[in-house]
Amino acid sequence: MSIIKKNNKLFICGLFTTLLLIVVYSFYNITNPKCVYSPDLSDSKYFIAHATGSLEGYTYLNSKESLMASLENGYTKIEIDLQLTSDSVLVCVHNWEQFNKMTIPNISKKDSLIYKKIPSYKEFKSRIIYNKYTPLSLDDVINIQKKHPFSIVTDRISDPKILNKYFMKDVRHHIMVEAISDKDYQDLKNSGYTPMLSMGQFSLLHGGIQIIYSQLFKQKYEWITAEQHCSKRTLRLLKKIFGIKFALATVNSEDFFSWHLANDIELVYTDNWNLKTQLNNDQNNAIK
Prior knowledge:
Layout: H1 2-30, E1 47-49, H2 64-73, E2 77-84, E3 90-92, H3 96-103, H4 121-126, H5 138-147, E4 151-155, H6 160-163, E5 176-179, H7 182-190, E6 194-198, H8 208-217, E7 223-227, H9 232-242, E8 245-249, H10 254-260, E9 267-270, E10 273-274, E11 279-280
Parallel strand pairs: 1-9, 2-4, 4-5, 5-6, 6-7, 7-8, 8-9
Antiparallel strand pairs: 2-3, 10-11
């Protein structure tokens, strides 16, 4: 009996080891980087102008001038950061401290709390970014969109109750919104938007297993946004098994575009990519 038990134990250990090796081999085979398609880097379908795109070396402008420059360059997807003013109007700002530093120069250290202040809508509209660029409200963006059609991509605000005041039902499916939670993702989807779950710099153990569990038993994700340095193997695994689409931020590297676009990911947020010249505008001078 002891010999039989020992043989059974060896058999189970061997079977487990074999299965583990198959799983490991399959993981590395599935996630092995294989660049099989060379994308057209002048095709706007791959690119999102990050924070309306850079202009004259400045990033995160969210300004009228940078928005119009990106549209002139051929972008059809524009990311716009949204924040609420002190009187609850949606405007285009990455964060208030950054905006205040862009628009209120030469503040002394003793008055530095001014940088933390959230302005009213009237005060916001009176400001000038870097003494040359025009701040945008979401209403301004929508009015520009009517004359120069493009798809809006946005983050910071993912509550559909706020967004619904600005976007009618018939246009929401053209609007991609980063969701910061499962609930936001489902609420945005139910409201007619195209939600993208924001995952940051995730890997298999940090977020990936959570996504796999959710895909199998809970929420089904169609889009995920992540940082460019996330685990590409995890990304490929999720894409090949579940068909998830990915948008990565923020990327300004031609080599990255050539290798990953259309192979591993569908979209990139970029500051400086010129669709017409296929060169990086302002890459060396861009303010990060």
